[in-house]
């Protein structure tokens, strides 16, 4: 049995975490550029603290990142050496429309990605392209309040028209919004939302989410019109939430947490707002502006496949005493006593990946694509820059075995697997370089010092072997 013959093995990055070149090639400023490393990062990401430009007190890791804007040819060559069948990358919106509301795109930006995709194709690598991976042009944030404005749908439509037409025949697989549910947890990073005093935050978040959902349906429609072969997917930050105990209240709490997560995908995959979400909005007094046209668009333009990131599972309890939250991701969760955790407090649960795959497949019956999974760890290179990252190999091996079980034993339809941060890059959550995911070590530290030299880690040759054997040789 095993994985399908055309299984898409590869790795994933995001423009704002690897490109750098923030002011080159006619690119405009974006929300992702002005998020610093350090104690202010989280309040800014969460839309609680305003940072709309650079200042002298902070360090902004995305400005240079790992300079992939200039090194993509060398980096893609390394991906090809590993045998990648696909490379998930994203488009920086402000490279194509520097301000976001122009009528015509920036040719230099369009050309840059065209070269990047052609470079992939040269090695037989299928680009898997995220249209917006947390990017929002700063001008749209300052002028329109970002995704809280319905006008954003039209600006996003322009972006889609420009890229689908330009890259027709070069790109088959598209994702509309990265981790669309992140708008609830990190609204500035996820959607350029910065709250004003006294604003109803829930109302703002769900209205902005609605605009993104409509924009996503519109993207799907345009893609299919431009090229019927294009496949458009949605993308969520996944990971099942388990009840902390078998107490029915805990089971209900876990169900509610899972629903909060799947709400967006319910709309993108089924074409309408689920009853539980409408009821909850009613209870919270959230009134969303949904037009008849919106409903029609959502209904008729559901996604072709569902992609997601998986790093860990979570736990939920209805008992306020138990709710002493753990570290970790933007999603806080209870510590699961049955699991080990990474150096950043993320709980390691390979079986949870199989469970999550089954949950999503049962729910939607559409092909699935794991587009992020990996271990963020402190890698210590030897004097030659070589990293012996057996811990990463072990982590990935266990997760690949779990997804193999989901395919072989459970019958899940899985299109592919791209590990997160196939080359070391800036962490979205913390802004650190120290938290590394890659098969390729990049010489750069949290302060932006280092030569940016690329070195293959032990996991590089291991993953090459995995791909060559279609997941048989682990």
UniProtKB/TrEMBL annotation:
Broad enzyme group: hydrolase
Keyword Hydrolase assigned: yes
Presence of the UniProt keyword Hydrolase in the record: yes
Annotated GO CC locations: cytosol
Biological process, per Gene Ontology: carbohydrate catabolic process
GO molecular function: 6-phospho-beta-glucosidase activity
Annotated catalytic residues: 372 (nucleophile)
Keywords noted in UniProt: Glycosidase, Hydrolase
Domain of life: Bacteria
SUPFAM superfamilies in the cross-refs: (Trans)glycosidases
Enzyme Commission identifier(s): 3.2.1.86
Family: Belongs to the glycosyl hydrolase 1 family.
Protein name: 6-phospho-beta-glucosidase
């Amino acid at each position: 049995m095993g994985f399908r013959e055309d299984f898409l093995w590869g790795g994933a990055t995001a423009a704002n975490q690897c490109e750098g070149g923030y002011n080159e090639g006619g690119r405009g400023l974006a929300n992702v550029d002005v998020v610093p490393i350090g104690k202010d990062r989280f309040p800014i990401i969460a839309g609680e603290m305003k940072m709309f430009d650079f200042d002298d007190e902070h360090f902004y890791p995305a400005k240079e990142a790992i300079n992939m804007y200039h090194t993509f040819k060398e980096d893609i060559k390394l991906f090809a050496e590993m045998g990648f069948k696909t490379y998930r990358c994203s488009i920086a919106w402000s490279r194509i429309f520097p301000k976001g509301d122009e009528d015509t795109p920036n040719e230099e930006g369009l050309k840059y990605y065209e070269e990047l995709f052609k470079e992939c194709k040269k090695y037989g690598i299928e680009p898997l392209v995220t249209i917006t991976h947390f990017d929002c042009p700063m001008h749209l944030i300052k002028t329109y309040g970002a995704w809280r404005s319905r006008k954003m749908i039209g600006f996003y439509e322009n972006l889609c028209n420009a890229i689908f037409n330009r890259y027709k025949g070069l790109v088959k697989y598209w994702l509309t919004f990265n981790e669309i549910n992140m708008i609830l947890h990190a609204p500035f990073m996820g959607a350029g939302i910065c709250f004003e005093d006294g604003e109803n935050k829930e109302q703002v978040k769900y209205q902005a989410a609605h605009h993104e959902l409509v924009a996503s349906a519109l993207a799907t429609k345009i893609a299919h019109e431009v090229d019927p072969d294009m496949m458009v997917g949605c993308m969520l930050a996944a990971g099942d939430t388990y009840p902390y105990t078998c107490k029915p209240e805990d089971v209900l709490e876990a169900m509610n947490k899972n629903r909060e997560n799947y709400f967006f995908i319910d709309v993108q995959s089924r074409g309408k707002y689920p009853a539980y979400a409408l009821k909850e909005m009613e209870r919270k007094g959230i009134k969303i502006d949904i037009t008849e046209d919106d409903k029609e668009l959502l209904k008729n333009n559901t996604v072709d496949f569902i992609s997601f990131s998986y790093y860990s599972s979570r736990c939920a309890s209805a008992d306020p005493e138990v709710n002493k939250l753990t570290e970790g991701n933007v999603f806080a969760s209870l510590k699961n006593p049955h699991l080990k955790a990474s150096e950043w407090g993320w709980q390691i649960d390979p079986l949870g990946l199989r469970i999550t795959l089954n949950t999503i497949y049962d729910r939607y019956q559409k092909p699935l694509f794991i587009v992020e999974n990996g271990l963020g760890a402190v890698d210590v290179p030897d004097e030659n820059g070589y990293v012996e990252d057996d811990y990463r190999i072990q982590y990935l091996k266990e997760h690949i075995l779990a997804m193999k079980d989901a395919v072989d034993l459970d019958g899940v339809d899985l299109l592919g697997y791209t590990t997160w941060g196939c080359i070391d890059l800036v962490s979205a959550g913390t802004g650190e370089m120290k938290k590394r995911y890659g098969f390729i070590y990049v010489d750069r530290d949290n302060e932006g010092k280092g030569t940016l030299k690329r070195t293959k880690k032990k996991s590089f040759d291991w993953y090459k072997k995995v791909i060559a054997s279609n997941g048989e040789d682990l």
